[in-house]
Amino acid sequence: MLRAAAGLDAARRASALAFALVLALGAQACATAPRDAALAPGDPVRGAAVFAIAGGCGCHTPGDGPVGAGGAEIPTPFGTFYSTNLTSDREHGLGAWSDAEIERAIRRGERRDGSVESPVMPYYRYAGMADRDVRDLVAYLRGLPASPSANRPSEGELPLPRLAYRGWRLLFAGHASPPAEAPAAGVERGAYLARHVAICGDCHTPRNRFGASIGDQELAGVSGGGPLPYAPNVTPDRAAGIGDWDVADIENLLATGFTPEYDNVQGEMARVIDGLAGGPGYGSAPAADRAAIAAWMKTLPPMSRAVTKDGSGPAGATAPAVTEEKPA
Amino acid sequence: MTNENPSLARAIARRAARVVSAATLAAAALATATGARAQAAAQPAHVHALPTGPISDRNEIMEGIGRDAKAIGAAMKAGKPADAAKPASDIAAKIDPFLKLFPEGSSGQGSRAKAAVWSDRGKFDQVGADLKDKATAVAAAANSGGDVKAASTAMFQDCKSCHDQFREPDQGE
Lengths: 328, 173
Hints:
- The complex is a heterodimer of chains A (328) and B (173).
- Chain A has 328 residues and is an all-alpha fold.
- Chain A has two domains: 182 residues, no CATH class; 135 residues.
- Chain A has eleven helices and two strands, in the order ααββααααααααα.
- Chain B folds into two domains: 45 residues; 113 residues, Up-down Bundle (Four Helix Bundle (Hemerythrin (Met), subunit A)).
- Chain B has six helices and no strands.
- Chain B starts with 5 loop residues before the first helix and ends in a 7-residue tail after the last helix.
């Protein structure tokens, strides 16, 4: 516990330092980013399917609903955040936002006033979402019944959060050039959905000390007992991951929440499968989309990183797992 | 503030961040390696440290039920529904001993059982009895060439329903 706390402290100090180094530079470089022309109107029916395979944008629905009303608590090492209201309410939700403003919030992490969102909102994953999909998703969000739930400010953020988030985006968000249309089928579609819509890696890919995903450990899992919640290694490694699951097993989990032992997942994974507060989730998404994600997952490089529920054992936040140690 | 060379600015920012992250990553890796060594001496990482007694015993039965359930799934996947008969009757046989392993006070200590097991004991025993019936029905369907898929789907729904009511989410789930 003590070591974890000290590590966290060091991480915060290092993060603050890194941010300080780039504050001015970041602010300047981002000011030159291009702006999109206005989006054509989307299709809310297609948008419902996008919303479903996005896990019902689960963070934005509180446990007792209504869908998209925001206010769910998201604890992170960088402060406690509360998800925002996505409903059509004009005062507290997105009712008064233009389509282009919502699109920029989703794919670029920009607020209406041009400032940058905290990376707790995984805009850097949605950055690769196809133009058509984001357009349709926006059209679907427009139809969420208005909830008057007011957005709640975050607590315990880093100093100078606005500049910090701008710096973070500059350093870690990458430069996505989203396609006009998503790949239509197969492993390519699975990769696209998993990375940019269902964002599996938001929970299942380990992060570095700055909260950015470690690129070469995709879906290699996160140990519990630390600042982030436990998420299993779901790469095809037979010992550490789910290498003994076949494509149908993965599809079945994404559809029903049942593992091959017919144990059902509970908690966060169950929420994004079942959908929250009666809304859609992976389970009600198009079966072909679940199949595409499952097929793609079987193509991932197996990672031997052993993650544990309580943080015991060899899996640190950043070090690759050591599966076997030969005596000297 | 100058606006002349944003790409240079970006390059400098990236370089600076790389140096800082390399230093923290190195420190983190060192701390992790040290911790891992200490841990390895204490106990293997994957062993579930459940206390001996009813918690451990019922956990073991449930793991056996998981193996049986997996065998039922495998039988259907292989197109041999008749093979589901034995694991299904094995599940049915495990329910009564399982339900006897929840004495008052056997909560906590790594157990995921919710307080409702004891505060709503009648219902807990009832869903257990339902599951036993459903498992028996799966075995019957498998032995008689009936609809094993429909019967097992109904049984698995009982599993889920009981877990959702009486079992806490796994740690961090």
